[in-house]
Amino acid sequence: MEEQATQTPVETGNEPQVFSMEQALQDAEARLEKTVQRGQIVTGTVVFVTNDGVMVDIGTRTEAIIPLNQLTEENLSEEELKNLLKPGDTVTAYVVRADLENGQIVLSKKRAEADQSWVKIQALYERGEPVVVQVKEKVKGGLVATLEGIRAFLPASQVDLKRAPELDEYVGQSFPVKIIELNRKKGRVILSRRVVLESELKAARARVLSSLKEGDIVEGQVVEVTDFGVFVALGGVDGLVHRSEITWGRFSHPREVVQKGQTVRAKVLSVDTERERVNLSMKALSEDPWLTVAERYPIGSRVTGKVVGLTQFGAFVEVEPGLEGLIHISELSWTKRPKHPSEVLQEGQVVEAQVLRIDPAERRLSLGLKQTQPDPWRSLPDRYPPGTPVKGKVTGITDFGVFVEIEPGIEGLIHISELAHERVEKPSELFKKGDELEAAILQIDPVEQRISLSRKRLLPPPVQALSSDEEGEGRKRREGKGAKRKSKGAPREGRARERDLDYGVAAAYTNYDPSVVAPSTTNVKLGDVFGDLLSQLALEEDKKEKAQ
User: Where is the S1 motif domain (predicted)?
Assistant: First the structure.
């Protein structure tokens, strides 16, 4: 007897689908035999939604439930959670609990999603690929973002190339990051945006370095100003304009010339691709003022400039940016002899000077300040002919004489031999600074700026101890004996008196140096000595004759 199968029609679409009783029994047995274990990922169909959760048919004899709090990581209301799934939806979930004897199977949809996310995150971490994330909130020490539904931490030190002082502006932003640390057991995902930026910057730097060559004219923004120069951004690489290449002019600090954020043009001096360095020059785009200095400022012309520096040996004057001249301390005044230029000029003062010498090769420009004023030394010989008496104060005392100021800034020297008729060993014992002396002009040299004076020429002659008759007889004997000594090479008589009238012979000096004395001084002094000796000898002979 043939066994007849019982068929149950099931409508599927437009045509009914017929299941035999045998198939239904097999399906029921399969349900009874199918078991699930904790930790499995299962797929099922939503049957209905209750206040406790979502009931899901996963092919077991009992239906499983997904509690509402296991549906998603998002913070939603109960009503919103109920509307996430509807009957007939296919859902994948993680088996949290499987108690088939008591008919309890608890699933978690968000945990299954997290498991899938960890798999994807692991793959991204192993490949080292950047991924775009959105920052959700700011926390202590950094930011929190969501990566494949998993909370990830972005430390403050990894947000940008430089540590950002404020992180609030990054909340809500989306940008690429790279996973730098992953620990699934601890649920730790550490991200870095700085690594991505550094990689992009390195690629951009390589492109820029390969495109730059010596002599190129570039334009960029000043990103940093330091003591030694200026850094200019060139789209991925920063070029350095050393302080010596900023301008031809003088400055104390580069920020006096350029400011951070300013757009500048410069010329490429060199490119070092290995060290990733680019040297630039801003002043190379302007003409070197020393190339045409001789044409624009010929010798003898007058220039106006600002005092930009004072040294022990002179003052530097900026004629124009990049062109400076030196006024030597000896060229500051006709009459003053300053120990330091600050006694005559001040830094920042605008002065007029005369061009004295030009050396473009050595980049030197010599200027004179006193040449712009009348030279008082040229008129001195006319105003003070030899023999003119003058008065002045003692300004200096040396072993070889005394300096006397006859006009403001103009000094003359009374040599030690011209201080008095008698021999002076130490001028400092007879005179002191500030004493007023009267002297006669012996000689004036306006070229060397020297004045020779004599004090003894204005003093009365020394008093003789003999009477007039004895003096007359002594004079006759001295004349006779002087004539005999003349044949033996002795100086002729009367040299001392002639010396008193000879204003043209003076004790010369060179730069007030006591070790340098002109030959004329030696001759005069020797004449004085021999004259005095002859006089003394004659007097002694007269005394002997009278005694006889």
Answer: 39-110, 128-194, 215-283, 300-370, 387-456
Spatial neighbors of 502 by CB under 8 A, at least 6 apart, are 524
Q: Which 8-state DSSP code applies to residue 140? A: T
Cβ pair 326, 250 in contact under 8 A:
no
Please state, in angstroms and rounded to a whole number, the distance separating the CA atoms of residues 112 and 124: 19
Sequential DSSP letters for 191-212: EESHHHHHHHHHHHHHHHHHH-
Cβ partners under 8 Å of residue 185, min gap 6:
none
Neighbours of 276 (CB within 10 A): 15
Q: What does the pLDDT read at residue 520?
A: 36
Distance between CA atoms of 212 and 220, rounded to whole angstroms?
13
Three-state SS sequence of 134-153: EEEEEECCEEEEEECCEEEE
| Per-residue pLDDT tens over the stretch 440-495 | 999 999 888 899 999 988 888 887 644 455 555 555 555 555 444 444 443 433 33
- Determine the pLDDT at residue 478: 54
The pair of structure tokens assigned to 162 is 């430089």
Domains and CATH numbers, the chain: 44-123 (2.40.50.140), 127-196 (2.40.50.140), 213-283 (2.40.50.140), 287-370 (2.40.50.140), 380-452 (2.40.50.140)
- State both tokens at 43: 């797929």
Residues 6+ apart with CB under 8 A from 318: 249, 250, 305, 306, 308, 324
Q: Where are the beta strands (DSSP E) in 208-349?
A: 217-225, 229-233, 238-242, 263-272, 277-281, 302-311, 314-320, 323-328
The answer to whether 496 and 548 have CB atoms below 8 angstroms apart is: no
392 beta partners: 437
